[in-house]
Design brief:
The chain has 289 residues and is an alpha/beta fold. The chain folds into two domains: 1-166, serine acetyltransferase, domain 1; 185-289, Hexapeptide repeat proteins (UDP N-Acetylglucosamine Acyltransferase, domain 1, 3 Solenoid), CATH 2.160.10.10. The protein is 41% helix and 13% strand. The protein contains ten helices and 15 strands. The strands form three sheets. The chain has a six-stranded mixed beta sheet. A hairpin with a 4-residue loop joins strand 14 and strand 15 (266-270). Helix 2 (31-48) packs antiparallel against helix 3, helix 4 (66-78) packs across helix 5 and helix 6 runs antiparallel to helix 8 (130-146). The chain is globular. The termini are far apart.
């Protein structure tokens, strides 16, 4: 067995192409494990809260897989207002033939379970975290964009922005194991790229400077933690394992493992880890104090 295979068997699935990123073993690892976890929690809640029985049946318990439940969740979130639920469901089936959406959703749920101290279970993430559902809506829109179905993709972007206050351009590229914490006010531009295992807090902007054409948005490296209210502007890179402090305005490339803070942001420390996004520790010593 290879080293990566041994790690996967011992501690759980590697959610990234990066072999150094392994989720903790006590968390569900595969889509099937996540789905079973959601089912178990839904049954418990159904017993203790009968008023939610029909809702849980329709949202969770009547479905056979995570992919099916996710399709239902997205259809209910975006169907209506002239957009046929039946046609939307058929579209989801078509673009998700390989199960990629479900696999990405599983990684995103696991990331939230690992990082959010307020999260009490995968059922919570799936049903009630708007950052999660907004991210899955982006993933569907991105798949549609890749099929040149731009109008449909932009409609989903617009509706996601209106309903969840999260605006992600469907052409942006976003990895797996992503947590959008609280999510309100997040804006991610067309040419932005986000690697695996990134955590992004509320009111973050990955935008352009307003003066550029073409490739004009930030590139966020593996394991980065972006604090609430941070603005990262222009075609610049944030290196692997870096941390952007709350309310910072970042206008220049950030080296790997650097902590940057301020307006404009400057380097104030070192994260000393590849995955500050996992620790979710926003504290740093400013100027060594």
């Amino acid at each position: 067995m290879s080293m990566s295979g041994a790690l996967r068997e011992r501690t759980g699935i590697i959610l990234s192409s990066d072999a150094n990123y392994v989720m903790k073993s006590h968390l569900p690892a595969h889509s099937a494990d996540i789905w079973q976890n959601i089912l178990d929690q839904a049954r418990v809640v159904r017993m203790s809260e009968p008023v939610l029985a029909e809702y849980l049946d329709n949202s969770i318990l009547n479905h056979g897989t995570l992919d099916e439940a996710l399709a239902h969740r997205l259809v209910k979130a975006f169907g209506g207002d002239g957009l046929s639920e039946t046609l939307l469901r058929e579209t989801l089936t078509t673009v998700n033939i390989s199960g990629e959406l479900g696999a990405a959703a599983s990684a995103d749920i696991t990331a939230t379970l690992e990082r959010d101290s307020a999260c009490r279970g995968s059922l919570e993430v799936f049903l009630f975290y708007k950052g999660f559902i907004a991210l899955q809506a982006y993933r569907l829109a991105h798949a549609l964009w890749g099929e040149q179905r731009h109008a449909f993709a932009l409609l989903l972007q617009s509706q996601t922005s209106t309903r969840f206050s999260v605006d992600i351009h469907p052409a942006a590229t976003i990895g797996r194991g992503i947590m959008l914490d609280h999510a309100t006010g997040i804006v991610i531009g067309e040419t932005a790229r986000i690697a695996d295992a990134v955590s992004i807090m509320q009111s973050v902007t990955l935008g352009g400077t307003g003066k550029e054409n073409g490739d004009r948005h930030p590139k966020i490296g593996f394991g980065v933690l972006i604090g609430p209210g941070a603005k990262i502007l222009g075609n610049i890179s944030v290196g692997r394992g870096a941390m952007i402090a709350a309310s910072s305005v970042v206008l220049k490339t950030v080296p790997q493992h650097a902590i940057v803070a301020g307006v404009p942001a400057r380097i104030v420390g070192d994260t000393q880890t590849d995955t500050p996004a996992d620790a979710m520790n926003h504290f740093f010593k400013y100027n060594g104090v």
